């Protein structure tokens, strides 16, 4: 026998009130409609559930036996509905570091899509994040795909081409310019904080420095504030090299200069497990990609930009089949 939960609910509320008028008010039903539901349930069960009089209602023996299981049945039905409508598990996304471009990128997307549910982590490098991705501890990670996505288990999509910038103090010989070229850095050299576990960033910078013959120094510093940046730059006699989206220190005696001719760009892609077919993940990938197009995240013409050859090859190949 299939029981209509609407009939069961009408019985339980009426059994609790023992008054058809009050029960009808709770259910938003007229007394006539409620009586019809109780009558239909009694016909299905082939037992009277209430003893009725002009003033009161009471449960029959069958009604008393049915009440407990009926409440359990309603609770199970409510739990089933709640399971369907329960919010989905947040998508777990690693941004590598909270000072880097992907963290700001995700924050911008979340601001425009408040219903998006993400759980953010920052493992400070693909060498740490990729194993977590393969173990399904995270669902996606931002990074440079060259060399990282060689395994067929990882899919990827380009999200952002982030330009490099040079930061100098106001008294530096380059400070009066509006832009600088990589060739202009050869005589000055550049320095960056040690990349630590972010070996993909360190490798990219080394390839850039080698390509243009720029002296490069990796410095072990805990926190690059404006004062520390100036102190280290002056002590080393070198230019601080960074990326445009990084939360770089701001100060009146610091000047940020775009690099051009060619424009070096750091390719941020989103990486995920190739066999992860969940719509929520692929909707997030599409959202990032489409939002990036609106914001000009990939607006630079690659013909006018510098990328390591291995990055161009990885991006030209596109996402692996099925990704």
UniProtKB/TrEMBL annotation:
Xref: PROSITE patterns: HTH_LYSR
MF GO annotations: DNA binding; DNA-binding transcription factor activity
All copies of domain HTH lysR-type, residue ranges: 3-60
InterPro entries named in the record: LysR_HTH_N, LysR_subst-bd, WH-like_DNA-bd_sf, WH_DNA-bd_sf
KW Transport (keyword) present: no
Gene3D superfamilies assigned: Periplasmic binding protein-like II (3.40.190.10), Winged helix-like DNA-binding domain superfamily/Winged helix DNA-binding domain (1.10.10.10)
Gene Ontology CC entries for this record: protein-DNA complex
Entry similarity comment: Belongs to the LysR transcriptional regulatory family.
Name by which UniProt lists this protein: HTH lysR-type domain-containing protein
């Amino acid at each position: 026998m299939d029981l209509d939960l609407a009939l069961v609910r009408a019985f339980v509320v009426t059994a609790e009130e023992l008054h058809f008028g009050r029960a009808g008010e709770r259910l938003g039903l007229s007394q006539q409609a409620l009586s019809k539901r109780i009558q239909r349930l009694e016909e299905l069960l082939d037992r009277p559930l209430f003893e009725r009089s002009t003033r009161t209602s009471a449960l029959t023996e069958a009604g008393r036996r049915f009440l407990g299981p009926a409440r359990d049945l309603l609770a199970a039905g409510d739990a089933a509905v709640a399971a369907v409508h329960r919010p989905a598990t947040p998508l777990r996304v690693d941004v590598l570091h909270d000072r880097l471009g992907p963290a700001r990128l995700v924050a911008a997307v979340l601001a425009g899509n408040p219903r998006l549910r993400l759980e953010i982590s920052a493992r400070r490098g693909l060498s740490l994040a990729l194993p977590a991705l393969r173990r399904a501890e995270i669902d996606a990670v931002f990074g440079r795909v060259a060399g990282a996505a060689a395994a067929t288990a990882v899919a990827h999509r380009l999200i952002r081409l982030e330009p490099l910038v040079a930061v100098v103090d106001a008294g530096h010989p380059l400070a009066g310019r509006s832009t600088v070229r990589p060739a202009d850095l050869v005589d000055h050299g550049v320095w960056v904080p040690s990349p630590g576990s972010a070996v993909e960033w360190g490798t990219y910078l080394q390839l850039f420095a080698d390509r243009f013959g720029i002296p490069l120094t990796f410095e072990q510093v805990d926190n690059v504030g404006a004062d520390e940046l100036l102190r280290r730059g002056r002590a080393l006699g070198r230019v601080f090299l960074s990326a445009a989206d990084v939360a770089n220190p701001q100060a009146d005696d610091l000047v940020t200069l775009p690099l051009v001719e060619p424009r070096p760009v750091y390719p941020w892609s989103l990486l995920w497990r190739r066999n992860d077919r969940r719509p929520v993940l692929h909707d997030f990938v599409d959202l990032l990609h489409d939002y990036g197009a609106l914001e000009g995240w990939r607006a630079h013409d690659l013909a006018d930009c510098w990328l390591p050859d291995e990055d161009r090859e990885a991006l030209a190949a596109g996402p692996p089949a099925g990704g």
